[in-house]
C-alpha cells in the first residue's frame, strides 16, 4: 500500500503540473507509468483520467466567483449568456468525438511511441506560433465570436491523440483565429471545465466496476496532490505566457519526446 501511495503522489504531481499547460498531462502520465513501472494493474490507464478530478476542482475553486457571476448573469445579462453558449459550442465537438471514439482512443492511441512523436511535433508547433507575427483581434476570452468558439472546439479534438495536449490545441487554435496569448490561454481554462469534467464522468462510468476501497484511497491521494499542484499552475500560468510566450513548454516537449524515443529504442 505504501508503494502505491508513493506512486499516486508522483502521478498526482505530474498531473497537477501538466494539466493546464501545453505539454499534455495524459502523455506525461503514460510515459511516467511506462518508464518507471508505475502502471497500476487494477486501474491501468484509467487512473490517469480519474486523478484529473483534483485538477478540475482546483480550477473550479479559483474561478468560482466568476462562474457564479456567469450563472447569475445568464438570465439577465446577454453577454454572460452569449459566453456560456460559446463555451458549450466549443465543448460540443469534443463531447461527440470523445463519446464515439473513447474505446478506440484508449485501445489504440495510448501508445508510448506515438506520444513521443506528438510531443516533438507539438513542441515545433508552439515554437512556430511564438515566431509568427500574428495580429490579435481579441483580448478577452469572453468576447470571441460564436463561430470562433466552435472552431476552437473543433481544433481541440486533435488533442484526443495522447501527447498533443488539450490546452495546447485550444491555445494554438484560438491564437490562429485571432486571440492574443493571454486570452487564448484563459479560454483553455474555461473550455477545460466541461471537457475535463465530461471526460472524468464518462471514464468513471466506464470503469466504476474496478473501484475498490483500496483503490479509492490511492485515487484520493493522487487527487489531493494534483489539486495543490494544479492550483499553483492556474494561478501563475496566464501571467507567465503573457510575458514569456510558449518557448519553455515547446522545448520541454521536444526534450521529453526525444528522451522518450531514445528510451523506447533502447528497449526500456
Characterize the structure shown.
With 268 residues, the protein is mainly α. The protein has one domain. Helix content is 77%, strand content 0%. The chain has 12 helices and no strands. Helix 1 runs antiparallel to helix 2, helix 6 packs across helix 10 and helix 7 runs parallel beside helix 9. It is globular, with a radius of gyration of 18 Å.
Structure summary:
The chain is mainly α and 268 residues long. Helix content is 77%, strand content 0%.
Question: What are the SSEs and their pairings?
Answer:
Elements: H1 2-18, H2 25-36, H3 46-50, H4 52-62, H5 64-73, H6 78-109, H7 112-131, H8 146-156, H9 166-176, H10 181-207, H11 213-244, H12 247-265
Helix pairs in contact: 1-2, 1-11, 2-7, 4-10, 4-11, 5-6, 6-8, 6-10, 7-9, 7-12, 8-9, 9-10, 10-11
What fraction strand?
under 5%
What characteristic shape results from the CA principal axes? globular
Q: Which class of secondary structure composition applies to the elements?
A: mainly alpha
Largest sheet: none
Individual helix count: 12
Termini separation: 26 Å
**Mean of the pLDDT scores?**
88
Domain unit count: 1
Uncertain segments of ≥5 residues (pLDDT<50)?
none
How many individual β-strands?
Answer: 0
Order of helices and strands: HHHHHHHHHHHH
How helical, in percent, are the residues? over 70%
User: What Rg is obtained from the alpha carbons, in whole angstroms?
Assistant: 18 Å
Amino acid at each position: 500500500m505504501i508503494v502505491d501511495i508513493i506512486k499516486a503522489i508522483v502521478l498526482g504531481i505530474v498531473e497537477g503540473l501538466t494539466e493546464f499547460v501545453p505539454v499534455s498531462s495524459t502523455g506525461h502520465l503514460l510515459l511516467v507509468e511506462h518508464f518507471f513501472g508505475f502502471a497500476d494493474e487494477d486501474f491501468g490507464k484509467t487512473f490517469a483520467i480519474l486523478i484529473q478530478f483534483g485538477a478540475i476542482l482546483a480550477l473550479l475553486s479559483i474561478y468560482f466567483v466568476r462562474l457564479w457571476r456567469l450563472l447569475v448573469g445568464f438570465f439577465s445579462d446577454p453577454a454572460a449568456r452569449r459566453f456560456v453558449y460559446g463555451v458549450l459550442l466549443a465543448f460540443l465537438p469534443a463531447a461527440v468525438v470523445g463519446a464515439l471514439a473513447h474505446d478506440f482512443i484508449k485501445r489504440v492511441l495510448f501508445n508510448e511511441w506515438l506520444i513521443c512523436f506528438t510531443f516533438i511535433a507539438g513542441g515545433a508547433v508552439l515554437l512556430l506560433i511564438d515566431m509568427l507575427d500574428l495580429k490579435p483581434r481579441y483580448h478577452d476570452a469572453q468576447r470571441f465570436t460564436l463561430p470562433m468558439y466552435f472552431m476552437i472546439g473543433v481544433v481541440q479534438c486533435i488533442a484526443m491523440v495522447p501527447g498533443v495536449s488539450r490546452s495546447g490545441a485550444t491555445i494554438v487554435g484560438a491564437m490562429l483565429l485571432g486571440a492574443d496569448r493571454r486570452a487564448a490561454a484563459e479560454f483553455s481554462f474555461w473550455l477545460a471545465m466541461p471537457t475535463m469534467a465530461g471526460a472524468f464522468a464518462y471514464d468513471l462510468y466506464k470503469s466504476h466496476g474496478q473501484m475498490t476501497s483500496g483503490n479509492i484511497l490511492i485515487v484520493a491521494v493522487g487527487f489531493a496532490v494534483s489539486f495543490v499542484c494544479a492550483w499553483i499552475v492556474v494561478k501563475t500560468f496566464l501571467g507567465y505566457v503573457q510575458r514569456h510566450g510558449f518557448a519553455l513548454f515547446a522545448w520541454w516537449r521536444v526534450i521529453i519526446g526525444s528522451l522518450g524515443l531514445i528510451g523506447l529504442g533502447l528497449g526500456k
